[in-house]
Amino acid sequence: MPPRDACPCGSGRKYAACCAPLHRGEREAPDAETLMRSRYAAFARKEVDYLWRTLHPDHEDRAEDERTVKDALREACARHKYMGLRILDRRAPDEAGVARVLFLARVFEQGHERSFVELSEFAHDGAGWRYLRGRLVPVGVVAGDPEALTIATFPGR
After folding, report:
1. Residue 3 lies in a domain
2. Which residues, given as ranges, of the chain have pLDDT below 70?
3. What's the pLDDT at 2?
4. Is residue 130 assigned to a domain?
5. φ, ψ for residue 75, nearest 5 deg
6. Does residue 153 belong to any structural domain of this protein?
7. Number of alpha carbons in the 13 Å side-chain half-sphere of residue 157
8. If you write DSSP's letter for every residue of the chain in order, what string do you get?
9. What is the pLDDT of residue 157?
10. What is the pTM of this model?
11. Is residue 71 part of a domain?
C-alpha cells in the first residue's frame, strides 16, 4: 500500500512534489506522459478545473458548456475509486505533433471493476501539452494480459 501522501499518478513521489504543482497551475507538464499521469491524479483527487484546463482546444468536450462538462467530471470523480496507473507504452510526437501514451488505469465503482486500457493522444497548444482524444478498452474485453499491450498491439488500432 502506498503512503497516504503518495501521488496517485504512480511515480512513487509525494503528491506535493509531483502532480500538485501542475494541478495548481504553477507549471506545465513537460511532456505528454507527465500530462497523462497528472490527469489520472486529477481524477483521483477530484481536480476538475485541471481536467478542464488540460483538454486540448480540439477535444470534443470543448464544444460543450464548461459547467456541464465539469459537472460530469465531478460526478465521475466522485463515483470512481482510482487504484493505480501503469504506463504500458509511449510514442514521441509524430510529424503532426501528436504524442501517444498507452496506459492501464485500475478503477473501481462501488466494488465493481471498471479498469481500462486507453491509448491517449496529446498535442501541444502553444502553452502546454493537452489531452486531444483517447480510445478506451475495458480490461474485461482485452484478450490476454492487458499489461502486455503495446501501442502496436492495442485493440482496434
Report:
1. no
2. 1-3, 157
3. 55
4. yes
5. -65, -45
6. no
7. 14
8. ---TTB-TTSSSSBGGGTTHHHHTTSS--SSHHHHHHHHHHHHHHT-HHHHHHTB-TTSGGGGS-HHHHHHHHHHHHHH-EEEEEEEEEEE---TTSEEEEEEEEEEEETTEE--EEEEEEEEE-SSSEEEEEEEEEEGGGSSS-GGG--TTT-TT-
9. 63
10. 0.94
11. yes
Please give the residue range of the domain that contains residue 112. 15-148
Q: Which three cell numbers stand for residue 47?
A: 481536480
> How many Cα atoms within 13 Å fall on the side-chain side of residue 63?
4
Neighbours of 2 (CB within 10 A): 10
Strands 116-124 and 112-113, bridge-based pairing = unpaired
How far is the CA of 47 from the CAs of 39, 83, 85, 107, 152, in angstroms?
9, 16, 17, 17, 32
Span 134-143, pLDDT tens digits: 999 999 889 8
Output the pLDDT for position 143.
Answer: 87
Number of structural domains the chain divides into? 1
Please identify which residue in the block is written with the cell numbers 462538462.
69
Residue indicated by cell numbers 495548481: 24
In one-letter notation, the amino acid at residue 19 is C
CATH number of the domain that residue 48 is part of: 3.10.450.50
* Residues 133, 126 contacting (CB under 8 angstroms): no
